[in-house]
Amino acid sequence: MKITSTSIIDIVSMTVAPEIKPPYELVDVEYGKMGNDYVLSILVDKEGGITVEDTADLTDIISPLLDAISPDPFPDQYLLEVSSPGLERPLKTADSLKAAVGSYINVSLYKAIDKVKVFQGDLLAFDGKTLIIDYLDKTRHKTVEIPYQMVAKARLAVKL
After folding, report:
1. Could you tell me which residues come within 8 angstroms of residue 47 by beta carbon, excluding any fewer than 6 positions away?
2. Tens-place pLDDT, residues 125-146
3. Burial group, residue 12, by CB count within 10 angstroms (0-12, 13-18, 19+)
4. Which parts of the chain are beta strand (E)?
5. CA angle centred on 34, ends 120 and 51, rounded to 5°
6. How far is residue 55's CA from residue 42's CA, in Å, rounded to a whole number?
7. Considering only CA atoms, which of 113, 99, 98, 100 is closest in space to residue 152?
């Protein structure tokens, strides 16, 4: 039976999420080939950012949990990477989008709104169903309402 990378991500998320306790927050789990190696990236954050010591402590918690998963979901050897999501952290859940209200974000859509599939701007509001973003169209500020089910990807963005 071949386990897909999506199901590996689901299995790992269900295994490690309950063990990543406050002040830490599990932001994302990614699995894929990087060069010749498979890499399992577990992105964790906390208020004020995480330190190298935090990633070492979290690795000590997460590594034995992964070793205990049975049957082993990994088809090949992999490298475990526990790190910060960085400045452009993904916003994968409704809760993470609610927490990002007031932030500058990038949103990719499944289907274009007014011939635009990617919006970048200030997230003014999110009620769980609709995102309201203030963005620049050339030199004019515009506001767009985006139904949550049309969001393919969302992440924090850096304003230059």
Report:
1. 23
2. 999 999 999 999 889 999 999 9
3. buried
4. 25-34, 37-45, 78-83, 104-113, 116-126, 130-137, 140-147, 151-156
5. 65
6. 10
7. 113
DSSP lists the bridge partners of residue 110 as none
Q: Which regions of 46-115 does DSSP assign to beta strands (E)?
A: 78-83, 104-113
79 bridge partner residues: 39
Residues 68, 50 contacting (CB under 8 angstroms): no
Query: What is the four-CA torsion angle of 114, 117, 123, 129, rounded to 10 degrees?
Result: 80
The answer to whether residues 44 and 30 touch, using CB atoms and an 8 Å cutoff, is no
**Residues 153 and 90 sit within 8 Å (Cβ to Cβ):** yes
CA atoms 40, 46, 51, 57: torsion sign: negative
Which amino acid would we find at residue 6?
T
- pLDDT tens digit string along 37-59? 999 999 999 988 899 999 999 99
| Full-model pTM | 0.74
Q: How far apart are CA 14 and CA 59, in angstroms?
A: 16
